[in-house]
UniProtKB/TrEMBL annotation:
InterPro entries: Kazal_dom (IPR002350), MFS_trans_sf (IPR036259), OATP (IPR004156). It is a multi-pass membrane protein. It is found in: Cell membrane. This is Solute carrier organic anion transporter family member. Belongs to the organo anion transporter (TC 2.A.60) family. It comes from Nyctereutes procyonoides (Raccoon dog). Residues 472-532 form the Kazal-like domain. PROSITE patterns: KAZAL_2. The chain crosses the membrane at residues 37-56, 76-97, 104-125, 172-193, 214-242, 262-286, 361-383, 395-421, 433-453, 549-566, 586-603, 640-662. Keywords: Cell membrane, Disulfide bond, Ion transport, Membrane, Transmembrane, Transmembrane helix, Transport. GO terms for biological process: monoatomic ion transport; sodium-independent organic anion transport.
Length: 698
């Protein structure tokens, strides 16, 4: 390196003696020996990894329609990536720095990319999507094939071969497709294991002690945009037709508002997998260990220098505390993992787990986070589907609403919680109060959501109005001359009576008219014997009468998400101050493991099962129950929002108990100090400044 460059580097290095001691290894020109470049690469990798992890949630209702899955099955699929993750995450704290961390991160990213490719494989091995039952290839004739036809014109022998082929080939293909998706989700969880823990520890080991918090803050800030980008990507991909790579010759007449519409769900997995694969390439060039960063960032120096003048001599600045805190953290790690074999680590882990769970504050904070995470997991997985059903919006619009409103609100809540803890110097008691207020406000905001919706509109043969007479069909006589197939689904709507029919055949329609517009064509059916005046009826489902409530609903949900996220940093600080120093590292690992096992794994299944109980009409495929066609909207809203309300109440109760325990501890400490002191001067110190260290410990 030229002398002027050497002098420039020596001038910014900070050494204990105040002199620069350049090491030839530190002067390598390779960009892969720069911790700043590692922070950039890791931010992009975690952004892409969270995007591919969250993309399935944005297209969950589309996958259900495409492959005939119930909400319980799709919820299990969404939660299955936690299975592989939870099975291996405990051993990450054991291996620590023994392995080549960048290379292992690269291998994990490659597995994640392969999981994304495997997730899109069912599209390519499945037959083209058939939204009608007329022919193996989708064509515009489905509108005419669904018309009312005399029973005598239907050939009798056709059902037998279709049933036999259904039982042999179609069912086997369905099981293979579902198995591939579950395998892909498991691989996704396995590949995600080393990415975040090894990346954070690598940054913390080789960054300057004063720069490490800033780098981690940048990492988390970029990473938190991943879920929002996943919903945004889902909103864009679901506007495209699922078989965009193999469109039928005659084209399709479906629009994205048609309930039979299936978007290009697989395309988002390919894009996300390509992004992860590109982000993984630099990790195979980073060294196992790089020279520790020896200088502070210049703008950080200026900030600390400016703030030092306002700090009193009796207080320690964060920059003075950080090296000691970092040393204590590494000492705690050294006491647990590095000198243990795998067998010894497995033996000592249950004892550390029980000792950590014996702390009441730690246990209650983890339970509150379990409740909050259960609420978030259910909302993230099924909120798009809820919006589609409750307010008659398209899947792409629902995803765009969540990606542009709810996710940014949650990010702002997390940031605001951290700022309040930092600026106000909140101690454990005030952190507990902040968590309690955030949980209470979030709970109160969810009350209006129970009333923001409409009941299910009338569907001929399925739902009944209060004055209807009991019977197998609402209109038993009008569709008797027609040969209506039981498994056909081509909904039409009578706009005057606001009644929906499963097919034009069930409405008794005998002809159809297509009106061409500038950008799309609208199909109407006429001569309908079941409709007053003979029609016309329009193709597609009836719009909800509450479509205008979707934006107020999303505003309340987003505000509640911000308030719930406000408790993230304060509750995390309560955990760090509630366990011993030597158990702190594993306590955080135990916390995330419990959140996965108790919240992220079961919650989507619980929400999916609750949604399935509100179904009023199931589609049948090969004699089995497939996707739900219609839900009881009032029941769906009450049970979905009710589950959210239940978890929010549990979180509020945990924070109330935490506050009660903290107050009791403060009273006991005050009593002990008062008893042990003699003299009014010592009592004054115990009742006054004695509380200050407790309040400012965080």
């Amino acid at each position: 390196m030229p002398d002027k460059d050497t002098k420039a580097m020596m001038s910014v290095e900070d050494t204990p003696g105040g002199k620069a001691c350049p090491n030839p290894q530190d002067l390598r020109p390779s960009v892969f020996y720069s911790i700043k470049f590692f922070v950039l690469c890791h931010s992009l990798l975690q952004l892409a990894q969270l995007m591919i992890s969250g993309y399935l949630k944005s297209s969950i209702s589309t996958v259900e329609k495409r492959f005939g899955l119930s909400s319980q099955t799709s919820g299990l699929l969404a939660a299955f990536n936690e299975v592989g993750n939870t099975a291996l995450i405990v051993f990450v704290s054991y291996f620590g720095s023994r392995v080549h961390r960048p290379r292992l991160i690269g291998y994990g990213a490659v597995i994640v990319a392969l999981a994304g490719l495997l997730m899109s494989l069912p599209h390519f091995i499945s037959e083209p999507y058939r939204y009608d039952h007329t022919s193996p290839v989708d064509m515009p004739q489905d509108y005419e094939a669904s018309l009312c036809q005399p029973t005598t014109l239907v050939p009798a022998p056709t059902p037998a071969p279709s049933n036999s082929s259904c039982s042999s080939n179609t069912e086997a293909q369905h099981l293979a497709v579902v198995g591939i998706m579950f395998m892909a989700q498991t691989l996704l969880g396995v590949g995600s294991v080393p990415i975040q823990p090894f990346g954070i520890s690598y940054i913390d080991d080789f960054a300057h002690n004063s720069n490490s918090p800033l780098y981690l803050g940048i990492l988390f800030a970029v990473t938190m945009m991943g879920p929002g980008m996943a919903y945004g990507l889902g909103g864009l991909m679901l506007r495209l037709y699922v078989d965009i790579d193999r469109m039928p010759e005659g084209g399709i007449r479906l629009t994205s508002k048609d309930p039979r519409w299936v978007g290009a769900w697989w395309l988002g997995f390919l894009i996300s997998a390509a992004a992860v694969a590109l982000a993984a390439i630099p990790y195979f060039f980073f060294p196992k260990e790089m020279p520790k960063e020896k200088h502070e960032l210049r703008f950080r120096r200026r900030v600390l220098a400016a703030s030092a003048s306002t700090v009193s001599k009796g207080e320690d600045s964060p920059s003075e505390k950080s090296p000691g805190a970092s040393q204590e953290k590494h000492d705690g790690l050294a006491q647990i993992a590095p000198d243990l074999t795998v067998i010894q680590f497995i033996k000592v882990f249950p004892r550390v787990l029980l000792r950590t769970l014996s702390h009441p504050i730690f246990l209650l904070v983890v339970l509150s986070q379990v409740c909050t995470s259960s609420m978030v997991a259910g909302m993230a997985t099924f909120l798009p589907k809820f919006l589609e059903r409750q307010f008659s919006v398209t899947a792409s619009y629902a995803n765009l609403l969540i990606g542009s409103l709810t996710i940014p609100s949650a990010i702002m809540g997390i940031v605001l919680g951290g700022v309040l803890v930092k600026r106000l110097h909140l101690g454990p008691m005030r952190c507990g109060i902040l968590c309690l207020l955030g949980a209470l406000s979030c709970l109160l905001l969810s009350l209006p959501l129970f009333f923001m919706g409409c009941p299910t509109h009338q569907i001929a043969g399925i739902t009944r109005q209060p004055g209807d007479l009991p019977g197998p069909e609402l209109f038993p006589a009008c569709s008797e001359p027609c040969s209506c197939p039981l498994d056909d689904f081509n909904p039409v709507c009578d706009p005057r009576a606001h009644v929906e029919y499963l097919t034009p055949c069930q409405a008794g329609c005998t002809s159809q008219v297509a009106q061409e517009a500038l950008d799309k064509s609208q199909v109407f059916y006429t001569n309908c014997s079941c409709v007053a005046g003979g029609g016309p009826v329009s193709a597609g489902s009836c719009d909800s009468a509450c479509s205008h409530l979707v934006l107020p609903f999303m505003f309340l949900v987003s505000l509640g998400a911000a308030l719930a996220s406000l408790t993230h940093t304060p509750s995390f600080m309560l955990i760090l101050r509630g366990v011993k120093k030597e158990d702190k590292t594993l306590a955080v690992g135990i916390q995330f493991m419990l959140l996965r096992v108790l919240a992220w794994m079961p919650s989507p299944v619980i929400h999916g099962s609750a949604i399935d109980t509100t179904c009023v009409h199931w589609a049948q495929s090969c004699g089995r129950r497939a996707v739900c066609r219609y839900y009881d909207h009032d029941l769906l809203r009450n049970r979905f929002i009710g589950l959210q309300f239940f978890f929010k109440t549990g979180s509020l109760a945990c924070f109330a108990l935490i506050l009660a325990i903290l107050r009791q501890q403060v009273k006991e400490e005050g009593t002990q100090v008062t008893v042990s002191t003699s003299g009014p001067q010592q009592q004054l110190l115990a009742s006054g400044p004695g509380k200050k260290p407790e309040e400012s410990s965080v």
